[in-house]
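Usage

Read records sequentially. Each one opens with the input sequence:
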Amino acid sequence: MSIVRLVVERPVATWMLAIAAAVFGMVSYQRLPLNLMPDLSYPSITVRTEVEGYAPQEVETQVSRPIEEALATVPGLSELESRSRAGVSDVVLEFAWGADIDDAAQAIRERIQTTPLPQDAARPLILRYDPSQEPILRIGLSVDSAKASDLTGESALFMLREVAERELKRDLEAMDGVAAVRVRGGLEREIRIEARQDWMAARGVTIDQIVNTLGSENVNLPGGAIRDGNQEYLVRTLNEVRTVEEIERLEVRAGTGSRVPIAEVATVREAPKDREVVSRLDGQDSVELEVFKAADANIVRVAEQLVVALEGRKLGPPGMTSKGLKDRLPENVQLVILENQARFIEASIANLRSTAFIGAFLAVAVLFAFLKDFRATAIIAAAIPLSIVATFAPMYIGGVSLNLMSLGGLALGIGMLVDNAVVVLENIQVFVERGESRRTAAIRGTREVSAAVIASTLTTVSVFLPITFVEGVAGQIFGDLALAVVFSLLASLVVALLFVPMLAATEVQLSASQQRPRLRDVSRAAQLHSIDRFRSTFASTAGAWRWLLLPWSLVRFLVRLGFEVTAAAVVWSSALAGRLAFTGIDFLRGPPARLLVLGAERFQDGYNRFAERFAHGMPSVLSRPGLVLGAALASILVSVPLGNTLGQALIPELHQGRFTAEIALPVGTPLARTSDFTLDVEQALTNQPQIAHVHSIVGTERRADSRADEGEHTARVMVELTSGGNLKKREAAV
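and closes with the structure output:
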């Protein structure tokens, strides 16, 4: 027995397979990660070594060059370069696409361990760039000048930094899906001990003695353990200083043997830590928080949780919201969400989804215009969502995320996956018009075109599948699109050869008694019998057993009553849904159906007239082959030069309503000069009416993952536009 005959003669089993495919697809859809673009992994590794106080020339000769010589023989290396700047050496290794970066990193570690470096050089760090680990949410904290006119300068920056670290960072990092929260800007407190040379000379104290005292006294040390019977107590020596007064009371042993308090040889005071980063929001000093998601977390879900935690959740009554972290902040502090990647991802994917739905609707409309058959159109309309939903299962197994490229592949595949179902259904209809039964027509019609449908689908698959083997960034970006198209086409092939014949062979004929469920019958089926049964049981039990068994009877009665109430609710809701469905079908079979058929007939009349004119014009065209070939050649000659004028880009420019301007002054420019220059740029942008917020970051922290070309001489100005209008033109104007 052929598989086509099997699915046609066993429709229940075919329905179960279709439902199972739909369920697996929906479950896979809910588990698919949601990203803006596919995951990109660049085959490059940076070895960063810090040597405090070294000039670029010494960094190159004593650090960068030995590391280059040691790493030049790493397997798979395609390019090696070094960047030496004051105090930092960066050696960048680029590998061939497809190389195992983990093995390469292990080989680099082994070679660095045997590389001689200066004694004061820090341990080399191996860094890999991961674009998916960019912050998903940026939050800005600033002082509301209207509510806190007396809170300015250093006091405001101290307060903002403490609020960010103590109130926001701790709560946000405790949320599911959040990997880390980084605080930038503001002022941090530190204790400065400024030794006086004349005071030290008068008391016979050296600077080394002060340093040794601070190192030995300001420490917490483990002191072992004490056993007391069956219990063990850990002993700790707690001597860590926390205040300025405690440091001032520390005593330094002088060379003469006397003990001198630090307050007599140095000035101890609390002062702001030297700033490495200056953060401003709309021209005012601010503090920025960057939120990073966990590796396996969904960007949209994590961002939604963060926004709810910050701003609160809307409740049922209008205007009612639950309190969030924003409401717990001091009244003079304002919180602004500077960037939320989830918003653009949601908007882009929602736009693509709506486009896909519109495409599917237009495909069904065009089919009905040509077929003029509600049954055939309904079969095709059912095949489209089933093919798409079934595609999500292999996407999840293949590690493809939901992003612009994969959804674009699904939208592209909608138009192509209809072809298989149309070919199969049209051939089945031909056998039905010849007088054969629907079951026989479904079997013979599907068999006749199955080879052609399979060959047509595989030729299209053979075009898109090789894209997944392309190396480089292009292969990683367009690989998801190709896989989405391939999976959707294969799913449509299975649906066209198995599901469509089963639907086409199904006879749908309802008798008069089966057309509508009667509410009287439903009310009889949904009666509550547990009450009468409890009464009869209680009355039939005699003597003391009636009261002894009463608790058990009550429990059984409540359980039965609960099941009966649930069953009655399901029965009544199903009956009402059935009534509404039949009413809707009756309505659609009336004037709307006649209007649709009339529209399809008018379309067919127009199409037939066009076909007749086309047939009359073909002989004259075929009689002038030279003219036709000349016109085709002329169009090619005109199109080729025009094609060379088109711009080239890997990915089209995305307009999110925000953009970033990077500023780089000459190397060596101090942070204060860079900040003043950036402030002038901010003030010029703030006066623009189409700009909502201007946020700037001047300088950079000395972190392992900081860029090699960033420093006190660099700044980034992030501009957010107001909503509405043409974002591309408005960005260009700004």
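Summary fields computed downstream for this record:
- Residues 591-644 form one domain.
- Residues 550-588 form the longest helix (39 residues).
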